[in-house]
Amino acid sequence: MKAPLRIALLAHVRQRIAAPFMGGMESHSWYLAEGLQARGHEVVLFAAGDSDPRFAIDPVVPEHYERTFPWAEHRGSAPLIAHLDAGYAAACDRIAAGGFDVVHNNSLHRFAIEPRRTALVPTVTSLHVPPYDALHWFVRASATPGHRLTVTSARQMAAWWPEGAPARASVLHNGIDPAAWPFTPAGDGSAVWCGRITPNKGTHLAIDAGRAAGVPLTLFGQIEDPDYWAAEVAPRLGGAIRYGGHLDGAALAAELGRASVFLFTPCWDEPFGLVAIEAMACGLPVAAFDRGAAREVIGEAGCFAAPDDAAGLAIAIGAALAIPRTVARGRVERLFTRDRWLDGCEALYAAARTDAAMAAAA
């Protein structure tokens, strides 16, 4: 058994780290904290103060910032930036003084990857996004011996480093607990979609494809963009197309298991697509836009259409329905389990600590 570590898990603070999850980043941090604790590590979650109280929380900000600074109003604004900078600066200082063996950085904030900070505590940074300008150059300037970088797919790796990735960067696929997403051997012929309801998730295109394919479709997820919902989603509902709400994991797993095909409709270069493997674990083949890492993640468990092509996706729905449900489940069990993911995390922690110790000795 590996020696337990004292781990600082630094999270994004736009939303609570608590179920029901707003998106993949919140889910990633929650399951990482839970999984590491189950393996005997001491985990302190640096997150919004209103996150799940089952964890030891050291608040970066008192409450998730969407409550104080709604994203649609304050994205990129000076008050929001100042609020986050103050919170993360203080949190990083507490981590440096806290006797931690390693930091797992899920924050997407530049302070956590400054070389002066990663030189103090070995750090593993998970990059959940494409290389947008606000973070890109800070990542490129973040090299220290004790800092490891991970991305969630080979497609994301190529986006961050088209010239070739540095030695301390690697692909670590996300993972889920298959037991939390139980396999159902048969569906009812319907389609399902879930995710944040916002333009870059393509909810309206899933509706158009489902209607064109003639299959009932249920949508699940948080309405993140009310204007988009009112203009593009709500008018398309009706008949066999319905909205089922924002559900927690167990309830969502039950709904997924009842369906026969999952629709995955990213309108941006999605680096992974956690919702796809959750559906696949329940036995659902996937009809997807061939964008971002979709093909890398879904593989033989899906059929693909060109990006933004609702008519093509309708054809893919019919083809995906012929894929055996065991194929989808088997791909998750082979490639995307939580144990495989946590093994990868622990290996990265060991490598970062070894590199930092060797640098200190030199």
From TrEMBL:
Source organism superkingdom: Bacteria
One Pfam family named in its UniProt record: Glyco_transf_4
InterPro entries linked: Glyco_trans_4-like_N
SUPFAM superfamilies documented for this protein: UDP-Glycosyltransferase/glycogen phosphorylase (SSF53756)
UniProt-listed Gene3D superfamilies: Glycogen Phosphorylase B
Domain called Glycosyltransferase subfamily 4-like N-terminal: residue spans: 22-179
PANTHER family found in the cross-reference section: BLL5217 PROTEIN (PTHR12526:SF595), GLYCOSYLTRANSFERASE (PTHR12526)
Protein name in UniProt: Glycosyltransferase family 4 protein
Species annotation: Sphingomonas cynarae
